[in-house]
Amino acid sequence: MNLLRRIFLQKAALFWVPIFAVTWVLSAYSFPLYKALGARWIIKYPAGARLQLEAKISAFMQWLVEDASFGLFSFRDLTRFISSLIEAPYTFARNALIDGFSVGLGSDAVDVAPSLSWVAVIVTLAAMGHYARDWKLAALMAGCFGYLAVFGQWDSAMVTLASVLIAVPIGAIGGLLLGVLAYRVPAFEMFIRPVLDLMQTVPVFSYLVPILFLFGFGPVAALVATIIYAMPPMVRVTIVALRGVPSEVHDVGVMVGCTKRQLMWKVIIPSAAPTLMVGVNQVIMLSLNMVIIASMIGAGGLGYDVLTALRRLDIGGGIEAGVAIVVMAIALDRLSQAFATRVADELPSNTTQNLAGRHPWAVTVLVVAIGTFLLSYILPAIQDYPESMTLSTGTFWSDVIGYINVNFFDTFEAVKTVFLTYLLLPVKRFFVGIPWAWGIIVMTLIGWRVGGIGLGLLSGVLTAFIAAVGLWNKAMVTVYLCGVSVLVASAIGIPMGILAAQNDRANRIIGSFIDTLQTLPSFVYLIPVVMLFRVGDFSAMVAVVLYAMAPAVRYAAHGVRSVDPQLVEAGLVSGCTPRQLLWRIKLPMALPELLLGLNQTILLALSMLVITALVGTRDLGQEVYIALTKANTGQGIVAGLSVAFIAIIADRILSAFATRARTKMGMAS
Amino acid sequence: MQKPIILDCKNVWKIYGAQASRIHREHDGNPSSETLKDHGLIGAVRAVNLQIRQGEIFVIMGLSGSGKSTLVRCLSRLVEPTGGEILFEGKDLLTTSDAELIEIRRKKMGMVFQQFALLPHLTVLENTAFPLEVQGIPQADREARAREVIELVGLKGRESYYPRQLSGGQQQRVGIARSLAVEPDLWFLDEPFSALDPLIRREMQDEFLRLQNLLHKTIVFITHDFDEAIRLADRIAVMKDGKVVQVATPEELVLNPATEYVEEFTRHVSRSKVLTVGAVMTRGGDDIKTAGDVGIGQRIEAVADMLEASELPFKVLDDEGNAVGTIGRQAVIDVLVGRVLKK
Ligand SMILES: Nc1ncnc2c1ncn2[C@@H]1O[C@H](COP(=O)(O)OP(=O)(O)O)[C@@H](O)[C@H]1O
Ligand SMILES: [Mg+2]
Fold first, then answer.
1. 3-class DSSP string for A636-668
2. Is Membrane tagged as a keyword (chain B) (predicted)?
3. Which residues of B touch A258 (CB under 8 A)?
4. Domain covering B5-10+50-108+184-269 in this structure, CATH number
5. What is the pLDDT of residue A353?
6. Does B78 touch chain A (CB under 8 A)?
């Protein structure tokens, strides 16, 4: 017994080789086995033993919306109240940016005031750019938003901007308050940590379903989803930022006799401001990403344009809107980063100056806003960018893609076929063939082996859940797509990371490439992929690889770079060639970091996979997507949880691996 | 006549770790090092008794990790001591309510920190005025007061700078200005100059002594630098592993180190800067022919040239002007070459 245990837990090859062999055999022969034994349960989880979770959740949601009441008010009143709270500022922002203010409804509406003119919006953003950094940023802002006007994306872009303008303050302030609460009340932190973990792994689509159910189709539902999606990172960043305030600064506050509230708001939060601004930048980028996705439940704007173009396979239109999203994402990212790192280098001007002297930009913006408003009576083009002067790149893009498809069709087809035949299909066959019962056993064993009995039980139970809700096959498709994508992403990303770590030039180029990839909303990746490879698993894989590659590069670079320089010197002195140095010293030492990067890649891949349901995969993502179109809450939540569970299992097992690797090498964890 | 005791610290303990206060209680408030070790606890401050008198510079000296910061934080109740009593102007700080404590800190205490701890989003002026702002003092009044202290610490003209635009020494001047803005009675300084370059450090020490000559605060000054301690201190408490091993004037410390540990510190100090005429003079000798007078409290360093240049010894006068002994060049040489002067 003891011997068995030793072998099981210690000899790596004796564990992994048999496990893989058995799995492979069972996967290949599960179907004949079922035929031979007449035991259908081998390949399909028995319907009688299914957890009827979907129906229960749907019934619960029904009850929530129709009957639930908190005494004084019903649940429905609550959702209506939240709606109105969000709707009012949203309507205002939309009116100010694009629709104009009017009184009355429908055809009786009387215009009261027009929206801000496009000139005024551009000047405002440029002014913010200059205020936050310098003329270069101002020019970038003007260029980006000028592009939106000139290329006919203005209206959609303003609708998207209005959503972002509402979602960001609510998400940032809400996240800040929750973070402050968690910082102050340890019990609350204990509660919110696992919630944040789950929020990070549940795919975005699956919260769209219940939100759609509760708030109905429309911009409010989209905003609620956006806020829920964008808030968790802010909570995390807030906790980290507040903890990171030096204890001496905290002590200063106490010693000068601050009350608890003064200590928090006058000392700790302002001292943490630079880190908090990093969180705000994240909220902005996530909001933009989600506003695009949420166009499926009524957000409108640029996301909606992309979505309809994808549905119509309108190549030019899709790329136009996609480029507009990219332009806007880059502009907002740079602007918010500039605010985060803004250094007030100039000394504060003395207070004797007049208003215009002290606030040159605020005054300029005001003058331009009023000036363009007045001028627009003479020159309407100042209010609304004249249609006749817009340029459309739609046909250009269609032509480009058309040209590529005509001339390179065979090449693309060949690449696609090779990947499908030699990688995608065999892997798919392997995973889909695994009988569910063996799947549960294998996951328990693996969990046990890498992280002890607790992890074994956790991964066993989570796997069993997936089987028990009847999603085994779809889950295996997800695992296969995710696995292949992560493999390809690592195969490209890790060498890039290693290159970046060893060469400064490469580092700059790769760094900015990765930065840009990370700025782009996930939706955008679908566009070129579908244009070039049409729908299917291969397209999904390419999109996922592009989206999920960044952490593989980053962690690999960081891991290689942070190898103890003395070790490298020791290697050099003992006469290693650069190649030996890499393989014998740097890579083994960077292993824990590589594993963490792999972990992040998997999480990103899973979240992107759900979005690729739009390009026709048949996995859990599709299940969520179907639930969304049918507004079937139970189905959406169950499928969403299944994805989250896969993510959690992968995360825990890889983290355990990384820890083991670290302890083995004697690094502090 | 001795000055009144401002801060009286009796048998103060601070133990870190799980169940610290239970262990402390169960061992009658006096757990041994072994007990602490067995329970995996850290005795950061152990059974410390100190009396700090009005107007003195009381220096707490010890190596890093010896518990100085923890002790000074107990004295200001930034950390809650595990046991003991701390009487500030006769009142036990450990039993005062939060509201009272806030009041005491606002009006009577000031503290300067090793890493300056300036608020990055406030200018020099706003940082200095911050303790007053917290008290709700109107802007004009608090800024006027802040300008006074800024001038006092020699930063006039930098009022509108941000901390990141200042050098380390300047930043610590702001830290000092801030802690003085409320005119505290009791002034804590936790290694205020340790983060500065040696040259700047000396300059700041001079500055500090100049300020104290103007202000006559009661000061608790932490340092790990023995030279700094003897330069500034009226009295020094030497700490080791959470315990105070000796409290004495710099001179007594050099002459009579209580343990080898203390002696180790004193070994390399330049004695002529520490020892006074009184410590090395020869008593009596009224009949000897002398070349002049020196005061009993003068440092050897200050009179060395004079003594050396003269064939004859000098007469030593006490504070009242009575002749109490003589001192000659031999004594100076003894001090300089470090011949043992055990009394
Ligand atoms: N918050 C804490 N938790 C646990 N141990 C601490 C804490 N603060 C200080 N210590 C320990 O108490 C001892 C004294 O620390 P400190 O007072 O900072 O020393 P010093 O200021 O003399 O360098 C050290 O061993 C330190 O590790
Ligand atoms: Mg210290």
1. HHHHHHHHHHHHHHHHHHHHHHHHHHHHHCCCC
2. yes
3. 102, 134
4. 3.40.50.300
5. 56
6. yes
* Highest averaged pLDDT of the listed ranges A187-201, A529-543, A620-634, B4-18: B4-18
pLDDT at A269: 93
Please tell me the predicted confidence (pLDDT) of residue A382.
66
pTM over 0.90: no
> Which atom of ligand 1 is nearest to B14's Cα?
12
- Residue ranges and CATH numbers for the domains of chain A are 409-433+470-669 (1.10.3720.10)
| B111 CA: distance to closest CA in chain A (Å) | 7
Of A334, A374, A372, A373, residue with least CA distance to A128: A334
pLDDT in tens, A88-115: 888 888 887 777 777 766 666 667 667 7
Q: Using a 6 Å cutoff on CB, does residue B65 contact ligand 1?
A: yes
Which of the ligands is closest to the CA of residue B70? Answer: 1
* Domain ranges for chain B: 5-10+50-108+184-269, 272-336
Using a CB-CB distance cutoff of 8 angstroms, which residues of chain A are in contact with residue B116? 248
Please, which residues bridge with residue B7 across strands? B52, B88
Helix axes B168-180, B124-134, angle to 10 degrees: 30
pLDDT of A344 higher than 60: no
Closest partner residue to A255 (CB to CB) among B78, B103, B135 is B78
ipTM of the complex as predicted? 0.86
Which of A262, A267, A344 comes nearest B119 by C-beta?
A267
Least-confidence region, from A206-210, B166-170, B249-253: A206-210
| Chain A CB within 8 Å of residue B135 CB | yes
Q: Is B115 on the interface with A (CB under 8 A)?
A: yes
Whether residue A262 and residue B134 make contact (CB cut-off 8 A), yes or no, is yes
Stated length of chain A: 669
* Helix, coil or strand: residue B236: strand
Q: Which CATH number fits domain B272-336: 3.30.428.10, 3.10.580.10, 3.40.50.10140, 3.30.70.100?
A: 3.10.580.10
Sign of the dihedral through C-alpha B34, B39, B41, B46: negative
What is the model's pLDDT at position A346? 46
Q: For the segment A115-148, what is each residue's pLDDT rounded down to a tens digit?
A: 777 778 888 888 888 888 888 888 999 999 888 8
Residue B62 Cβ inside 6 Å of ligand 1? The answer reads yes
- Strand segments, DSSP code E, in chain B are 5-16, 42-53, 57-62, 83-88, 91-92, 109-112, 186-190, 218-223, 235-240, 243-248, 282-283, 293-295, 314-317, 323-327
For B172-215, what is each residue's pLDDT tens digit? Answer: 999 999 999 998 999 999 999 998 888 888 999 999 999 999 98
Query: Which residues in B lie closer than 8 A to residue A246 (C-beta atoms)?
Result: 115, 117
Residues of chain A with C-beta less than 8 angstroms from the C-beta of B194: none
- Cα nearest neighbour of A262 on chain B: B134
Residue A669 has pLDDT above 50, yes or no: no
* pLDDT number for residue A179: 94
Long-range CB pairs of A110-114 (<8 Å, 24+ gap) are: A114/A373, A114/A376, A114/A383
Pick the closest to residue B115 from B44, B191, B62 (CA basis). Answer: B191
The answer to whether residue B25 scores a pLDDT higher than 50 is: yes
